Amino acid sequence: MAWNIDPVHSQVSFSLKHMMVSTVRGNFKVFGGKLEIDEANPQNSWVEAQADAASIDTREPNRDNHLRSADFFDAGKYPVISFKSKKVEPVSNDEYRVLGDLTMHGVTREVLFNAEYSGQLKDAYGKQRAGLTAKATINRKDFGLNWNAALESGGVLVSDKVNIEIDLAAVKEE
User: Fold this and answer.
1) Which of 4, 37, 47, 106 fits a 20 to 30 Å CA distance from 133?
2) 122: domain range?
């Protein structure tokens, strides 16, 4: 039985270096998806998730508008960022490697997430809930997000390395 991602209790966030010295963090406000959790046979587990590229939020409206533009996500042309797992591999009791296809800006690349499963419980309303976290690092240029600006002091305005962090809560379908 599938589980639905609970966006109210989940977060899809990212971080990267700005001007080579400070860290900028942001998230996507609109996202969703489904997953299957097979505790007995984790290799049978899977996830399919999407985020609305235009829902990017870095707490700076001018930067967010630039990120939505053709310089970066081109959210009008490529409105959805998606991930579809291909393989779930146990590492330890609660740690897993999740390999899948990340599609962003019209480009699909394999990405490996390191995930930690927090388990399941029944909430006060009788619904079965589960939680997990997942982290990956990508190179934004692998997805055609190439815009940058050189700094007079050397280096660039935006780093190529992007850290992705997902805090996920899911509710079992009834």
Assistant:
1) 106
2) 3-172
Burial 53-66 (b: 16+ CB within 10 A, else e): bbbbbbeeeebbee
Q: What span, in angstroms and rounded, lies between the C-alpha atoms of 47 and 36?
A: 6
The total of structural domains in the chain comes to 1
Distance CA 14, CA 135 (A): 9
Q: What is the pLDDT along the chain (174 residues), one digit of tens a residue?
A: 799 999 999 999 999 876 566 788 999 999 999 999 998 999 999 999 999 999 999 999 998 998 999 988 999 999 999 999 999 999 998 999 999 999 999 999 999 999 999 999 999 999 999 999 999 999 999 999 886 656 566 555 677 889 999 999 999 998
Write 14-18 long-range contacts (CB < 8 A, 24+): 14/162, 14/163, 14/164, 14/165, 15/162, 15/163, 15/165, 16/140, 16/158, 16/159, 16/161, 16/162, 16/163, 17/158, 17/159, 17/161, 18/157, 18/158, 18/159
Rounded-to-integer distance, Cα 98 and Cα 86, Å: 8
The size of the chain, in residues, is 174
The structure tokens listed for 159 are: 């780093």
